[in-house]
Amino acid sequence: MLAQRDTYFRVPHGRLKLREEGAAAELIGYERPDLAAQRESSYRRVPVDDPEALKAALAAALGVEATVVKERRLFAWEGVRIHLDRVKGLGDFVEFEAVIGAALDPGSAGRRVEQLRRAFGIGEDRLIGQSYCDLALAAAPA
Known about the structure:
Layout: E1 2-9, E2 15-21, E3 24-31, E4 42-47, H1 51-62, E5 64-77, E6 80-87, E7 91-98, H2 106-119, H3 132-139
Antiparallel strand pairs: 1-2, 1-5, 2-3, 3-4, 5-6, 6-7
């Protein structure tokens, strides 16, 4: 079980989060459409040696959008990562992530993700387009 804390910062486009996982941390910048369907995500991951200092600097410069705390169980099947997430204050989620590259082209990645979605019994009406950050903001008291 992975314990993760994602701190999302306010940025003009895309998303920027600091992921803390035990003693390890990384800064992740990514962009993806908010669609409740298979979608492409482009991202960059940068290891962070001093997460507390970086978090303080980014919070001062950009502001914190939200913090998401989750427990993640991670599995893999034929090049697809399966995330079973329990997100504090939001509930339980399943995420399939296929990394396009030498092992997977976009077509086969899409077919494998669709196969998993059906095997897990997840209907299209259950798909969510928003990130955990968006869901946390929507669930926060006004």
